[in-house]
Amino acid sequence: MMNALIKSFGYAWKGIVVAIREQRNLRIHLSITSLVVAAGFYFHITAVEWCILLLSIGLVIGLELINSSIENLVDLVTRERQPLAGKVKDIAAGAVLIVSVISVIIGLIIFLPYISTLG
Ligand SMILES: Nc1ncnc2c1ncn2[C@@H]1O[C@H](COP(=O)(O)OP(=O)(O)OP(=O)(O)O)[C@@H](O)[C@H]1O
User: Fold this and answer.
1) For the chain, what percentages of helix, strand and coil (3-state, to nearest 5) are there?
2) Where are the domains of the chain?
3) Which of 18, 31, 48, 56 could bridge 103 with an S-S bond, Cβ 3.0-4.6 Å?
4) Does domain 2-116 have CATH number 1.10.287.3610?
């Protein structure tokens, strides 16, 4: 039972590592995430602000992983150029884009008031 649980964490970790290795966008999101977390510590943002920030980060990174998974699934189904294959990938990428744009807006709403006190 415990063994199976540890094994499934291992598989999930393997998936995360391979996605980071293969997906440039994921690496970009992770770099931005570290900057945002550093800014959170620097400005001593509130507990509620941390929760909102962590939710956004989880959504972006989680969706990016699902997007990578869908890309691989499409490539498994066909390596040929097919409009439907492109559509599936583009819609999944669209999901990541929407959540990313909303996260940037959330980041601005949280950090702009702190940044404005710097000057
Ligand atoms: N099998 C396919 N058929 C049609 N369009 C595709 C296919 N695979 C990818 N595309 C299009 O290319 C975009 C990029 O896809 P992806 O990130 O998987 O790169 P890729 O498979 O390396 O494609 P390319 O080599 O042409 O850049 C997709 O959003 C989609 O618009």
Assistant:
1) 90, 0, 10
2) 2-116
3) 56
4) yes
